[in-house]
Design a protein that fits this description.
Layout: H1 10-33, E1 48-51, E2 66-67, E3 80-86, E4 95-100, E5 104-109, E6 112-117, H2 119-122, E7 132-136, E8 144-150, E9 160-165, H3 166-201, H4 204-222, H5 226-230, H6 235-258, H7 265-287, H8 290-322, H9 326-350, H10 352-361, H11 372-479, H12 484-513, H13 521-536, E10 539-544, H14 553-573, E11 578-586, E12 589-596, H15 608-619, E13 623-628, E14 633-640, H16 645-653
Parallel strand pairs: 10-11
Antiparallel strand pairs: 1-2, 1-3, 3-8, 4-7, 4-9, 5-6, 5-8, 11-12, 12-14, 13-14
Helix pairs in contact: 1-9, 1-11, 3-4, 3-11, 4-6, 4-11, 6-7, 6-8, 7-8, 8-9, 9-10, 9-11, 11-12, 11-14, 11-15, 13-14, 14-15
Length: 654
């Protein structure tokens, strides 16, 4: 323990006193609001009872009535019995009889049935602390009524009966328990805020806060008489008995997350047991018989609660002694409030017979008919909110310190950058001299690249012309002995081909510097195919679709020269005599396909012409494929026909 005497614990005692005063103040206010509702019922001294033979009896017996005061010790005591209760005269227009602590009952006015309820008929399970029956009485109010009761089990709480009117009952119930809906809304709002914090920060503390607040919100509604007025579903209050352990698990999780792991090591194991017990309790509430579920609540659950409370108090006291900071003070004070009220709640809810004896010993417990545990839970959540705000404050302080350190680092880095800037200026001066050398190297590279490209273009054009000329010369050589005139015409055609080749070379050079508006690709293809067929005798079938206007000069040149190279190679190397050519524009791409007969193509390394052509096509973002035909060869090209980034890059390189 830090310090000595009471003085060292003054902050804890002061905050605890504030919480106790708030709790007492709220309790006093709630008791004052419910004073009308909690007025005394009909006096049991005037009641009488007699054992019942059957639950199917339609009218009360005429004799055998005994004073109600000797029922608990009577040898004929059984769960099925008749009650005769005298009523007070009343001029109410809508008289009612408010009945508590009854399971199955039938109410008679003489031989007339006024009201009947059996939970078995509706598949209901009851929490007698919060289930009531409101019996309509005939007018004028009879002098006495008879009730056939079935307690199903012994040791039930004492029957409570009050004579009232419907309007008085509803108004007093609303005054008494409207607070519960407000309290439930506050807890639900707290759960939503904590859930938002969890999604933002992913801390388990906020998730346990959500669980505890949701359980408290549910319990605040389920532990009211007012809920049954709007929705007569006893399962709500019955399941509340099983939800309580889940709230204890959330409470434990909050404590574990707030304090150091070394101080809460044992609680982590207990929390897992509580979670398993909570899930088992929820399943048992639905699946087990009421008797066995009651046994589970009255013994294992109560024992586990007492063990948990002891270990929890030990862990909190260790944390308080370890560091008497705001977190320890607030959590320990909140724990004391919640645990003391929870202990009273457990005794009242799960040990009803023992609580009934306590009420006779301590009459003040008779006025505690409000949801004191939910109020205590709200006070604990206020403590927890203070802890969260305190942590946010600490985080804000750390962020301020980090910001100051960051500003210092920025100043240091700024000075370093200024030094680096001076160094870069000096380096820039040194690099300026080398840039001239680099520019000269780039210029030489561009010249070499352009020479390479011009060589390929001239090779394509000249190779085609020379191939056709060779064909004509070979024909003239063979015809010269037999038909000199025809041989001379072949020689003349060869002369024209040579001249045409020179013209094509000049056109290629002009094409390199002209734009696409001066070059008609379709007309050039028609002319090339016509001249080739005329001079070589080859048959060339072709189909051209409308070409897009966005074709660049470089694209047109590559397509034209690819056709030129394909025809030349087919004639020279494949002895082809028949060609089929197709040029189409589909989905933003140009598709080129040239097939030939002759010798079947065997894949091999490209020659100069094909290699240069494949490089130019790749520069334009396209691809070229040469494959064997059946027989002959198939040349296919695919080029983008829109000004894409790759195409523009290739055009710049060209």
């Amino acid at each position: 323990m830090v310090g000595s005497g009471v003085r060292s614990h003054l902050p804890l005692l002061r905050f605890l006193a504030v919480l106790i005063c708030l709790h007492v103040l709220l309790a006093w206010g709630l008791v004052a609001m419910s004073r009308d509702f909690n007025s005394a019922g009909l006096p049991p001294d005037s009641w009488s009872w007699t054992p019942a033979d059957s639950a199917q009896a339609s009218e009360p017996p005429a004799d055998g009535w005994l004073p109600y005061s000797d029922k608990p010790s009577h040898p004929s005591n059984s769960s099925l019995y008749w009650m005769r209760i005298p009523l007070e005269p009343s001029d109410s227009r809508d008289p009612r009889l408010f009945i508590l602590n009854a399971i199955a009952l039938s109410v008679y006015d003489g031989g007339k049935l006024l009201y009947a309820y059996d939970p078995i008929d509706y598949n209901h399970r009851l929490n007698l602390l919060y289930h009531w029956n409101l019996v309509p009485l005939s007018t004028p109010v009879p002098s006495e009524i008879y009730m056939l009761l079935d307690d199903r089990e012994p040791h039930r709480p004492q029957l409570f009966v009050r004579q009232t009117s419907y309007g008085e009952f509803v108004s007093s119930l609303i005054r008494k328990e409207t607070y519960a809906f407000v309290l439930s809304a506050l807890l639900l709002f707290s759960a939503c805020l904590a859930l938002g914090l969890y999604f933002n920060r992913r801390e388990k503390l906020h998730l346990y806060f959500v669980l505890m607040a949701l359980c408290g919100s549910y319990a605040a509604i389920a532990r009211t008489f007012l809920l049954q007025l709007f929705w007569d579903q006893p399962w709500m209050s019955y399941l509340e008995l099983a939800v309580f352990p889940l709230g204890v698990y959330g409470f434990l999780g909050v404590i574990i997350e707030v304090f150091d792991k070394k101080l809460t090591a044992t609680l982590r194991g207990i929390s897992r047991i509580i979670l398993a017990l909570s899930l088992f309790s929820l399943a048992s509430a639905v699946l087990l018989d009421v008797k066995w579920f009651g046994w589970l609540l009255s013994y294992p659950l109560v024992a586990m609660f007492l063990i948990t409370a002891a270990f929890l108090f030990h862990a909190l006291w260790k944390a308080y002694k370890h560091r008497q900071g705001p977190e320890s003070i607030w959590m320990l004070a909140g724990f004391f409030i919640v645990t003391s009220t929870a202990l009273l709640y457990v005794v009242r809810t799960y040990l009803t017979v023992f609580f009934a004896k306590m009420r006779y010993t301590f009459p003040i417990l008779n006025v505690l008919q409000y949801d004191f545990l939910s109020v205590a839970l709200l006070l604990f959540l206020i403590c927890l909110v203070r802890v969260i705000l305190y942590r946010f404050g600490q985080m804000n302080d750390r962020l301020k310190q980090f910001n100051q350190a960051l500003e210092s680092n920025v100043e240091t880095r700024t000075s370093e950058l200024r030094k680096r800037e001076e160094q870069l200026r000096e380096a820039n001066v040194q690099l300026a001299g080398t840039m001239r050398d680099t520019a000269e190297s780039i210029a030489s590279s561009i010249v070499l690249e352009e020479r390479h490209r011009l060589t390929g273009a001239i090779h394509d054009t000249l190779g085609h012309s020379l191939t056709a000329t060779l064909v004509q010369l070979e024909a003239a050589k063979r015809l010269l002995p037999r038909d000199p005139e025809l041989a001379l015409s072949k020689l003349g055609a060869s002369q024209q081909l040579v001249r045409r080749g020179f013209e094509e070379i000049r056109n290629s050079v002009r094409l390199l510097r002209d734009d696409s508006s001066r070059y008609d690709l379709a007309e050039a293809i028609h002319r090339l195919i016509g001249e080739t067929a005329r001079t070589t005798g080859a048959v060339i079938d072709y189909r051209l679709s409308p070409l897009p206007d966005s074709l660049s000069t470089l694209q047109k040149r590559v397509i034209y020269q690819a056709l030129q190279e394909g025809l030349t190679n087919g004639l020279r190397h494949g002895d082809s005599r028949r060609f089929d050519f197709e040029l189409t524009s589909l989905a933003g791409r140009l598709e080129f396909r040239l097939t030939s007969d002759g010798r079947t193509y065997s894949p091999s390394e490209f020659g100069f012409g094909l290699k240069a052509m494949s490089e130019r096509i790749a520069d334009l973002g396209g691809k070229m494929i040469i494959a064997p035909g059946n027989p002959g060869c198939v040349l296919t090209l695919s080029l983008p026909c829109s000004p894409t980034e790759e195409l523009e890059k290739g055009a710049r390189q060209a």
